Amino acid sequence: SDVYKRQSLTEPKKIAELLKAIDGYSGSYVTACALKLAPLVFVRPKELRSAEWTEFDLEKAEWRIPAEKMKMRLLHIIPLSKQALEILNDLKPLTGLGKYLFPSIRSLSRPMSENTINGALRRLGYTKEEMTGHGFRSMASTILNEQNWNRDAIERQLAHSERDGVRAAYNYAEYLPERQRMMQSWADYLDELKSTQLI
């Protein structure tokens, strides 16, 4: 995982700067929503851009990515924080009647291109060595581990497979109550960072 640590920001001050930059993003509103959601859900970039409205239960505050869309071919649950739900509720009137949350600008029947998020980060002044769409994963992983959340809950939320295979056929709801608390706490932490005055 060190490979992608290089393209990620893990210092609180740098994360705060990034979040403020994202809030000021002046490109397409749909892209802005994807950018804002990315740190809150820290899924793989492909999973984010191909997110479909049918996978979301806003009442239950859950996003369930079907197995066939996941790298490990296992259903994955993302508990949605209040902050994530707010973004989704803002986005719904715009793209909610279509298939994808983040449709391509050229065709509503296709998701946004894989370059959209990284392109937006470049527009915000971040080089590909500094931050990528994938970087939100190591950002979350690094900080959540530093905050002493249960490592297994973090790994499960990142949808990392168990290398030994013994536990690979896990229950997708494993550690779910803890992951719900963790995802809300993480969203609150990001808000807190954003509201602090940068020295």
Notes on the structure:
The relative contact order is 0.20. Helix content is 48%, strand content 5%. A three-stranded antiparallel beta sheet has the order 1-2-3. A hairpin with a 4-residue loop joins strand 1 and strand 2. With 199 residues, it is mainly α. The two termini are 31 Å apart.
Supply database-style keywords.
199 residues; mainly alpha; single chain; 5% strand; disordered N terminus
What's this entry about, in short?
This protein has 199 residues and is mostly helical. It is 48% helix and 5% strand.
The average pLDDT score comes to 91
In sequence order, what are the helices and strands, one letter per element?
Answer: HHHHEEEHHHHH
Unreliable parts: 1-5
Globular, elongated, flat, extended or rod-shaped: what is the shape?
globular
Number of helical stretches of at least 4 residues: 9
SSE layout and pairing:
Blueprint: H1 2-5, H2 12-23, H3 29-41, H4 45-49, E1 56-57, E2 62-65, E3 76-79, H5 82-95, H6 116-123, H7 135-146, H8 151-157, H9 176-195
Antiparallel strand pairs: 1-2, 2-3
Helix pairs in contact: 2-9, 3-5, 3-6
